[in-house]
Amino acid sequence: MTHRERIMTTLKHQSPDRVPIDLGGTGSTTISVRALERLRAFLRIPADPPPVLYSKRSATTLPDEVMIERFGIDTRPAKPGRPDAAAEREIDANTFVDEWGVTWRRAPGENFISVDGPFQHLADPTPRDLEGFSWPNSCDPGYCRGFRERARKLHENTDRAVILNLLNGPVHQSQFMRGYAEWLEDLLLRPKFVIALAERITGFWVEMNTRILEESKDYIDLVSYGDDIGTQHSPLMRPELYRTLIKPYHQLMAAAIKRFGKPIIYHSCGAVFSLIPDLLDVGIDALNPVQVAADGMDTKRLKQEYGRDLTFWGGIDTQHVLPLGTPTEVREEVRRRIEDLGEGGGYVLSPVHNVQPEVPPENLVAMFEAAVEYGGL
Length: 377
Known about the structure:
The chain is α/β, with parallel strands linked by helices. It is built from 14 helices and 14 strands. The strands form three sheets. It has a seven-stranded parallel sheet.
């Protein structure tokens, strides 16, 4: 099979020639700059050219072409551009403000975290507070400029599955703009404000991404976006709150993608087992990252209960095994996840979230080599 055929076959819950492998296909399955530099040195790959930055916020980068070929990676990402208006405004070397009015500050290390938002300091916000804000323009030409050509080159010049990487949904964006704790309080105390903010964000998301897909649908194989609704131990909110305040907007997002017939990779970290029926009802095709160290995310049970309808994308533990295990333990982790998830298709192997700087390069090599060795089932 070609790399693209391998991905599309497993999404149809048919057996590919081997389990597909992803590194760098989405914003949550790539590698940090420092981890890539360590891996380059380990593999004796020249340091030039410098890494291609995927995300300033998360300090992640795209894997080298040499690595894509060497490890048999089956995916390539395609990202929209940045807006012409209201572009990022740098405060200092470690602080910037994005087009949504969110302030980001560099944390110890390399990545940035949101530290302030335009609605964070409102004591008792109402929908009227949203009216005076200068919202990003979904028709800003910067989002689409050059994207069709970039996607076409990836589709025609490689045989990898091209994944359109879209912005986060209303959960994340609301948290950035309102503050994490404040937004969680709003779910209970100010549901009208939660709904009004989600409507604004989702409306922008649907309009912008509809334009992108209208221009480039022939060169996109599948679509990825995220909205974290899980913690280490449970969903972020009670299921009834999700169904009332968030799910309608997730349905609007998925419907916009399904208009173009594209499979959806939905990213949510954490313990989301109890919400999988809702996510299937929304219309997602694949769940990423399958955070196996979170409560209830047992891969054998996931496959048994939802493997007929859902593709699992991820599954290789990044909390314990990849950073702290031995290469032998990494190989065993890969073997276990393939045995649990791979039979009959419906599994794409990748690390649970982006590879962090502390992951030993020999563990990454062990992961990819074991994926090919065991992936033929």
